[in-house]
Amino acid sequence: MTIHEQYMQRCIELARNGAGSVAPNPMVGAVLVHDGKIIGEGWHQRYGEAHAEVNCIGQATQSGQTGNLQQSTLYVSLEPCAHFGKTPPCSDLIIKHKIPKVVIGCRDPFEEVNGKGIEKLKAAGLEVIVDVLKEECVELNKRFFTFHQQQRPYVILKWAQTKNGIIGFKSAERLRISNEFTNRLVHQWRSEEAAILVGSNTALLDNPQLSNRYWDAAKQPVRLVVDRQLKLSSSLKLFNGEAATIVLNNVQQSNEGAVQYEQLSGNGSVVQQVLQALHQRKLNSVLVEGGAELLQHFINEGLWDEARIITNEELIVTDAVKAPLLQNELQTEIQQLGSDKICWYKNKLQNPIIHPTS
Ligand code: AOF
Ligand code: ZN
């Protein structure tokens, strides 16, 4: 690792402290280095509050390092912003403090910034180095990047299957596939995403709560169900008011109460319409939990980023619903939790494109 990469690695580490508190904003970390020593560190801590650079420069000035800023290098994992949002532009702050050199992890895809921060710094005569540990910095904010570059949320597909590839029974009889450790992990996954999605069959047959009960209870994703003709009964657990629920349908629109109804345009791909609805609501990631048919639609249209497949290697069931089949998958990780094997996949196609219908 070069020295730039080492400091950028530290920025990424700092940025991760913001996990769970900054969405839909990106996680960002910054480090100020003077004469081979770190004189300030900071990260974006909470949505709507100070950006990483502000906290980093603030720490340096508060510890009496103001005089050294003019001979320092600022490392930051994302391009400093150029716009007046909830806070003033970070690029102006850097210029004001006469910091001569800025090393950036990756460009900010948000249209108000997208290169303008870099241009501003360069125009003021600063030395700017871009794309240090770019891949890691983009991966850190995969949800944010997907949302801004593809105008859709980051899509994670998840299912549990038996050893012979069965996802559930055809009737309302519940098939328990994953073990208690894996169930807990799934709740952690729910806590990490903005939304969870299921199809109406799954809502009806499984009657899932779709809430996060075994992890940080403060983090409840929005629950979404596709129920085109509004056939689901209001007695289902999805409608218990424990977390917000959105019913995507072809019939009605209403935004009152804990259950909201969002009308889909009715034409074309349901997957694309669902993703557009999520985008409009600024929900930048979604965990798709079934059923097999809905999951397969996402796969067939190439509109997925990650798949996490849990296989109970000791269970075999016959005459039941077959699990979806992935396409263009790249296996990245395998984890074993007791009898469950968890395989992580990425979509090999770099940019699954969404085609807006309107
Ligand atoms: C930075 N440093 O630490 C972060 C940045 O709503 P605001 O004003 O907080 O602006 C949010 C946008 O600012 C967000 O979409 C992204 O483009 C950028 N985030 N920029 O210079 C930071 N978190
Ligand atoms: Zn900023």
From TrEMBL:
It comes from the Bacteria. Keywords: Hydrolase, Metal-binding, Multifunctional enzyme, NADP, Oxidoreductase, Riboflavin biosynthesis, Zinc. CDD domains: Riboflavin_deaminase-reductase. NADP(+) binds at residues 160, 202. InterPro entries: CMP_dCMP_dom, Cytidine_deaminase-like, DHFR-like_dom_sf, Eubact_RibD, RibDG_C, Riboflavin_Biosynth_HTPR. The keyword ATP-binding does not apply. Its EC number is 3.5.4.26, 1.1.1.193. Binds 1 zinc ion. PANTHER family: 2,5-DIAMINO-6-RIBOSYLAMINO-4(3H)-PYRIMIDINONE 5'-PHOSPHATE REDUCTASE (PTHR38011:SF7), DIHYDROFOLATE REDUCTASE FAMILY PROTEIN (AFU_ORTHOLOGUE AFUA_8G06820) (PTHR38011). This is Riboflavin biosynthesis protein RibD. It comes from Lacibacter luteus. The gene is ribD.
